[in-house]
């Protein structure tokens, strides 16, 4: 009885007890290696499509997606573009050091701007074979870039925090440099080397803003043919940019899921997107978990503006928990607070950071449905799907396995409708 009274007096204590009681074992399933799609479909839009709606499941091809979306739907896409973020350097000793670019630190943390930097920059990296690359050592390479030889030197800016400084001697941008130096970093679970076709197949057809180290893979199924069909039906589309980080592949290794470290990812929203959302509240369907996390983060940014907490866009991992519904603005009020702030500040876009963690118990604010692939067992993305459709997530995944669906990044697709609607 005493515990019940404490929970009533302190809703935060109740929420934390329920969240910390989430058993990760309940969100795993057996995924045989031969069910992981190691390569994409020859024709993108011929992938399988499962449609889930309030317990009902149907099986189609992705080209049928238009027939499954109401005409008033607003599809929201993540137009980030994967950069060749993995590079290898061979030391004189023969040791090979691998760098995977994660996030720019200097002279700017804004990824779109960091792509245009010349001569010198600092990035946070994952470092393979770090024990062979000591503090004070410099890696060197000569790279042909746009018809000229560029001398590159790589050293530690901060050894403990894996901050790496790159210096090069030519008037070429960082993006030009990495395109000449690096390779597309495929997800580790594909367990194969990057091949030439991956440069095209591991990008969406609408990829635009360079900066991701992983593709927003739900969008890989879209083709000009599908876009034409959507346009003929009158279904509108809008774009945001979330530069997907390597953290999307990090497994949960802690007993209490709330203690899992969510890596911060950079997201860019335009004033045009806010207006489209305002006109489509209750009819928004994100393409992929990155778009969904971005949109839900956007709602919580509007909460901060509505409550005059801050104008900085930084959504902490557990900021959405716990709130009393009476304390929160509606989706329209949240979006309008953002629109008003952007108008008053003469802003056409906002760059922010989010580490939002969506797991069972979360209440969705902007998203009515989601188009998404099939995710790793026991991952943060499985928890997100379970938050979206409830306990039926396991039925969906068992059905996909039974019907021969292909899993993970190059795998098949699903259209999931939110149980109970948006709040």
Automatic annotation (TrEMBL):
Protein name as catalogued: S-adenosylmethionine:tRNA ribosyltransferase-isomerase
Role description: Transfers and isomerizes the ribose moiety from AdoMet to the 7-aminomethyl group of 7-deazaguanine (preQ1-tRNA) to give epoxyqueuosine (oQ-tRNA).
Recorded family membership: Belongs to the QueA family.
Gene that produces this protein: queA
Superkingdom of origin: Bacteria
HAMAP family the record matches: QueA
A Pfam family the protein falls into: Queuosine_synth
Entry EC number(s): 2.4.99.17
UniProt keyword Phosphoprotein present: no
Quaternary state and interactors: Monomer.
Single GO molecular function: S-adenosylmethionine:tRNA ribosyltransferase-isomerase activity
